[in-house]
Amino acid sequence: MFNKKKNNDKEENIMNPENTSENTAIENAENTDAANETEKAPELSAEEKLQAEVQQLNDKYLRLYAEFDNYKRRTQKERVELLQTAGKDVIVSLLTVLDDFDRALKAMETAADIEPVKEGVLLVHNKLKNILAQKGLKDVESISKEFDTDFHEAITNIPAPTADLKGKVIDEVEKGYTLNDNVIRFAKVVVGA
Question: Where does this protein have compositionally biased stretches of type Basic and acidic residues (predicted)?
Answer without folding.
Answer: 1-13, 37-47
